[in-house]
Write a structure and sequence with these properties.
alpha+beta; 5-stranded antiparallel sheet; 24% helix; globular
């Protein structure tokens, strides 16, 4: 996936549109709305593997205020909107931005949004294995953003942590995971558009 187009999912209260009163996101923490929105997007991303990448623009200034989705083609973004726009979370709590094109001559900074894995307790087989604790400590120390997710296969809840790191302009197309994130075996970067 070459990030040539993007669309912002802006997390802010909806206003009354005159015909009906929409639920307002005021009072619902942005992190909760962002997690719910990512669960919806994850479903659409799984149906179209490798076509969408997720970014958290301005995370340092306004945590979880926006989920930015990159795609190679404008049609991919149109399909994504069509797939998710009627979902209650997207419809009632998210303002959809207008699809934009990444400037062809973009020479700004690039950022990698990498999935940061913390192993499950059951995967630690040795009594003295402290990998889980070390990974959790690092996530907490570095204040990594995370989404609360729910596994449909196991029914369990888990934290999906994201490591945000500066990166070089990619020399080849990236292949995002089903959450739209870079992974250790398939790193890629996205343009840091303000």
């Amino acid at each position: 996936m070459n990030p040539r187009h993007y669309l912002d999912f802006i997390i802010e209260p909806k206003v009354d549109d005159g015909d009906r009163t929409q639920r307002r996101a005021a009072g619902v923490p942005a992190a909760v709305v962002a997690g719910a929105a990512l669960r919806v997007l994850h479903g659409a991303f799984k149906e179209r593997p490798g076509r969408y990448a997720l970014a958290l623009p301005r995370y340092a200034d306004r945590p979880f205020s926006t989920l930015r989705v990159f795609a190679g083609e404008r049609d991919d973004l149109d399909e994504l909107v069509q797939a998710v726009e009627s979902h209650p979370v997207i419809r009632d709590y998210i303002q959809l931005g207008y699809p934009r094109k990444v400037p062809v001559d973009y020479d700004g900074t690039w950022t990698e949004f990498r999935r940061y894995r913390i192993p499950a307790r059951r995967s630690c087989r040795k009594p003295d294995d402290d990998l889980r604790e070390r990974r959790m400590q690092r996530a907490q120390t570095e204040r990594l953003p995370f989404f609360i997710m729910h596994s449909q296969s196991t029914g369990q809840q888990f934290g999906l942590y994201v490591e945000i790191r500066p990166a070089a302009r990619p020399s080849s197309d990236g292949i995002p995971d089903s959450y739209g994130l870079s992974v250790t075996t398939r790193p890629f970067a996205l343009p840091d558009l303000r």
